[in-house]
Amino acid sequence: MKCFYLFKDKSKCRRKAESAPELRDQNKSSNNNNNNPALDRLTKSSGSLPSPKSIPELYKEKEQELRAFTFQELREATNGFNRMLKIGEGGFGSVYKGTIKPLNGQGNPTVVAIKKLNQHSLQGHKQWLAEVQFLGVLSHPHLVKLIGYCSADGERGIQRLLVYEYMPNRSLEDHLFNRAFPVLPWIKRLEIILGAAEGLAYLHDGVEVKVIYRDFKSSNVLLDENFQPKLSDFGLAREGPTGDRTHVSTAVVGTYGYAAPEYVETGHLTVQSDIWTFGVVLYEILTGRRVLERNRPSGEQKLLDWVKQYPADKNRFSMIIDPRLRGDFAPNAAKKIAKLADCCLLKNAKERPTMSQVVERLKQAIQESQASSSSSSANGTSSSHKSNLVKGKSK
Ligand SMILES: Nc1ncnc2c1ncn2[C@@H]1O[C@H](COP(=O)(O)OP(=O)(O)OP(=O)(O)O)[C@@H](O)[C@H]1O
Ligand SMILES: [Mg+2]
């Protein structure tokens, strides 16, 4: 499991898990959905604020849009959670490719991804619930779509599952770091990170409540059939501070190497923590290296320390660009991306750019790369940026 819990209050986790609200019970008719006492309690507890509405309140208005599956339906959808259909594994549990029948029984079956909570996961229920509520409310072309969920407590223990739209081209992580995949061309890298940035900008400023994603990393950027990126995994997402508050206080959770230093030190979470993490992924895109690679010489293991030795305004900067690109990138745009990453990684969180500023800077870098690509192909000097677009592995 890649997630870490620096501050873990186990007794607190357990209490929360036991008293956590239930969603629609798969065995009850959906007409009962508005009479869920546990969800009511949750809504009322934060309901005294006049505005804006909280995620649980917004969720209550939209919950009918999610489909409540029975465990049996999802077992059939995955051929009994057949190992041959397993497409991934993360901290939450296993992910399977499956096929679900339409609700009314008519029409073609839909291919989906089904995430099944590992039953021993202490944090699992809480993350599952957060994911259902956030993705039940949020909707954007660059967020993965949640189709439904399953919550069943039976003789075999609790079962918590999530059903998503299927993303056939796997994750940005696979395309950047897995040698079995063709090289991701320069412009495609930028287009993918731009889409991911637009998804993050929507979370920070496009919804009634500010949403802090808290888990931005290349494995959570999934790619659809057209290589359009979509953010996935909202189990760690939190509502941002409201009113005069500057941050939300929380136990420190996330993935090693990606979390902002002030958040790790204080547990104070802000939207700027996401911006830091975005800066880390920008350097992954530039270098084709993971944030932490223990098999490298000691000075190169930590990506952020290593790239500091190759600043964007020095000639040696080009040494850090992913060698798999074989020089096929726009040097000026690459420098701009590195400078943008450095701004995202400023120690003083208040000096970091907003996500909408990041989006603008990325658009400029793409334009510059396209311009340099067309001028070099007009001169016949480079095979630069041809969209020899990877045919990603489809499962
Ligand atoms: N909707 C989806 N469509 C297709 N594949 C998916 C989908 N969701 C997840 N996957 C696959 O399952 C893998 C595991 O995903 P998961 O989110 O459980 O773990 P992770 O992101 O790798 O790690 P972590 O648990 O630390 O977030 C992903 O990398 C991806 O390949
Ligand atoms: Mg993930």
TrEMBL record:
Protein kinase domain location: 81-366
Biased composition (Low complexity): 366-387
PROSITE patterns named in the record: PROTEIN_KINASE_ATP, PROTEIN_KINASE_DOM, PROTEIN_KINASE_ST
Catalytic activity: L-threonyl-[protein] + ATP = O-phospho-L-threonyl-[protein] + ADP + H(+); L-seryl-[protein] + ATP = O-phospho-L-seryl-[protein] + ADP + H(+)
Region (Disordered): 12-55, 366-395
Record localization: Cell membrane
GO cellular component, one term: plasma membrane
Keywords: ATP-binding, Cell membrane, Kinase, Membrane, Nucleotide-binding, Serine/threonine-protein kinase, Transferase
Chain residues that bind ATP: 116
Biased composition (Basic and acidic residues): 16-27
Matches recorded under PANTHER family: OS01G0588500 PROTEIN-RELATED
Protein family according to the UniProt entry: Belongs to the protein kinase superfamily.
Protein's UniProt name: non-specific serine/threonine protein kinase
